[in-house]
């Protein structure tokens, strides 16, 4: 393996993908608060249900198109090399989890769009002066079925995201690899180089120690 191979294998994601990832995290956090806690927010805060649902629907539509954009950039860009030391089973589980999360986000957001239309309403785009197309006509029975499925997909998606977060923390804390650093603005190889850089005083001290007792450089 060439000297640059480990650095290439541990390289971080492109900046644009990192930006899309953390914007998605922010949108999903707002979606969870506005959707899951809407009744509590209305009863304990000075907001009305319409305002809460506007936030929820707006974030859902933003997340839908952001996820499509994320998928397009992932497909169009070069594949990230496997993490150094990762097994084939780990990579397969990670790929399956990512695909499932993408699918659940897209399915849940599309169902939310469908629910709004089935209630006889359109989703406006005020900044551009148009409404999103209606997917279905008004249908109360469809609303009931779609809301139930929407809720189930949401819970499954957030459960899978919890596993995804736990796995990232486990890699970072227990395995001490670059899984989490790959999705940070600071590049893994830069962070590693900074962590092992000694001061001149420490370097001088190391020279006076036996090789086995020297500090890590």
Ordered list of secondary-structure elements with their pairings:
Elements (H helix, E strand, L loop, with lengths): L3 H6 L5 H22 L1 H7 L4 H28 L11 H31 L5 E2 L4 E2 L8 H36 L12 H8 L4 H8 L10
Antiparallel strand pairs: 1-2
CATH superfamily: Transmembrane di-heme cytochromes, Chain C
CATH architecture type: Up-down Bundle
Compressed to H and E, one letter per element, the order equals HHHHHEEHHH
Task: Note the total helix count.
Answer: 8
At CATH level 3, the topology is Fumarate Reductase Cytochrome B subunit
For the report, how would you describe the main beta sheet? Answer: 2 strands, antiparallel
Helical proportion, percent range = 55-70%
Structural class: mainly alpha
CA distance, first residue to last residue: 22 Å
- Unreliably modeled segments: 1-9, 190-207, 209-217
- Strand content bin: under 5%
Number of strands: 2
Number of domains: 1
- Dominant shape: elongated
Mean pLDDT: 81
CATH class reads Mainly Alpha
Radius of gyration: 23 Å
Q: What is the strand arrangement across the widest sheet?
A: 1-2
């Amino acid at each position: 393996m060439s000297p640059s191979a480990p650095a290439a294998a541990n390289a971080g994601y492109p900046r644009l993908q990192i930006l899309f990832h953390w914007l998605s995290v922010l949108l999903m956090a707002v979606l969870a608060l506005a959707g899951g806690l809407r009744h509590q927010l209305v009863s304990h805060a000075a907001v009305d249900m319409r305002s809460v649902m506007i936030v929820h629907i707006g974030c859902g539509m933003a997340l839908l198109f952001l996820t499509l954009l994320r998928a397009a950039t992932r497909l169009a860009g070069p594949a990230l090399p496997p993490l150094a030391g990762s097994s084939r089973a780990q990579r397969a589980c990670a790929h399956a989890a990512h695909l499932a999360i993408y699918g659940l986000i897209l399915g849940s957001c599309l169902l939310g769009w469908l629910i709004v239309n089935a209630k006889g309403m359109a989703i406006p785009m005020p900044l551009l002066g148009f409404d999103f197309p209606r997917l279905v006509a008004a249908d109360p029975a469809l609303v009931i079925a779609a809301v139930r499925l929407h809720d189930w997909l949401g819970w499954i998606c957030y459960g899978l995201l919890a596993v995804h977060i736990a796995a990232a923390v486990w890699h970072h804390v227990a395995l001490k690899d670059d899984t989490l650093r790959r999705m940070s603005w600071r590049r893994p190889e830069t962070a590693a180089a900074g962590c092992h850089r000694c001061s001149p005083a420490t370097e001088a001290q190391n020279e006076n120690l036996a090789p086995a007792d020297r500090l890590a450089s």
